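Forwarding the complex inputs:
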Amino acid sequence: MKIKLRDIAHGRSGDKGDAANIGIIAYDEKGYKIIEKHLTVKRVKEHFKGICNGTVERYEMPNIRALNFILNDSLGGGGTVSLKLDAQGKTLAAALLRMELEVEKI
Amino acid sequence: MKDKIRIASGQGFWGDLVDAPYHQVTKGDIDYLVMDYLAEVTMSIMQKQKNRNPKLGYAIDLIDLMKKILPISTKKGIKIITNGGGVNPISCADAILEVAMKLDIGKLDVAVVLGDDIKDCLDDLIKKGCDLNNMETGEPIVTVKDKLLSTNVYFGAFPIVEALKRGADIVITGRTTDTGLTLAPMIYEFGWKDTDYDLLSAGTVAGHILECGAQSTGGNFLGDWESIENFAEIGFPIAEAYLNGEVIITKHENTGGKVTFETVAEQLVYEIGDPKEYITPDCVADFSSIKLEEIGKDRVKVYNVKGKPETEFYKVSCSYHDGYSATGSLTYSWPQALTKAKAADKILRKRLENLGLKFDEIRSEYVGYNATHESLAPDLEEDKINEIVLRFSVRAKDRNTVNRFGQEIAPLILTGPPSVTGFAGGRPKPKDVIAYWPALIRKSMVVPKVKILELK
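Prediction (whole assembly, two chains):
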């Protein structure tokens, strides 16, 4: 079945220089299993192909059912150099929650 | 020695809710009020203010705030710790003492932490072999030295601990890590040692949860945000810290917002890199060890935090001038709002090209369509959209080039697509572009100094 990441997780994003950080937190353990399996570096890089010009790093935090992604080279120079309206990547967590996942029945 | 203290966050950035610290000292019991005023851009703004007036260069809001809260905080014995001293902690402390004198507060010890500002001794440091290479590009600092605006070392909790040991009621610092402000009172009150890495990491995690103010109590919550009650009177976070390193995140009763596993977890992942390597001057905390547990209404226990020894380096944050930018916008209404905005963009680009202007970057965004999620924005049915804002920005090294752009955007009202409005602000003016230069410096090269200014 098809689900939206938004149905099983929430998160927050911000900036670290020209990289954006996106923390995604599953609402429960079942959800964490899903994001752990489906939110791969490859999948996230593909999702942000129009935004992220660098590599994607993924870190696991099973202790709080979270994954942390670093999207390098994504903020148009970062800080006050960037001309982007969202120069700090504040809305990128929401942008990731748009992702659709094909999962086994939940 | 105490076995429990309550540390309240009063400010998440310079520009946060002005009355939040007042509510923290009046709506319930706390022992410490900590306030983070410094973002990277703040230091360069403060440096500019100090260049114009040597008595400025700190978070000026602190002075009005002190007028309001000093009579209460001194009576209740609440200590105040803030990095709002910016690039001029001494003048900040002097101004606070003046307020205290006028209010007839009585005895008050204000400590300042100095030594973080290495702008004036930079040549010496470079001679001694500190290259201050850019952590991202590897270039040495000499390449931007003439354009530097501010150069500050991030100190940690220990200079503040020394100030508290020397009897400070208020501690004013320059560039101190946000987490150090919260960790310091725990070290001081609980007698933690500089090798108690798990405990130092526990205090650091508490500091990370407090450092963005209400972002851990329901503000900017991306979960079920509509379940957050009374945003209007949102309570800022309080860390109830215990001797054994356990911390309960809570807020005053009868305030808005919410403290849950989810609201705290969102703040934990905010602006972190590798969770196993959360580096501060005091320790390296492991965020993948943290356990969270809801133990009551608006009470989340944070425990089991592990950590490692600190590194041999301080982080240095330098800001330098890197050209100019300007942004202007025009609003196009139905029908064909997006098509018209895109046509205007094309015309403007052609005119800039015809003028022979060279920009480092030109960017157009369509607010109402794709300004935030860019390529992820779904196609829109143009007939259902009432308006689109064309937000057009340029950046260049040359000020005149950016200024010339400012003269080109407004004329589109009379010389481009129809039903356009929203140009009341005048021509966009060139703004300074401030770029950052993150670097490392060996800890032995800089020494924090603590000075106590007394009001007797």
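DSSP finds four helices and six strands in chain A.
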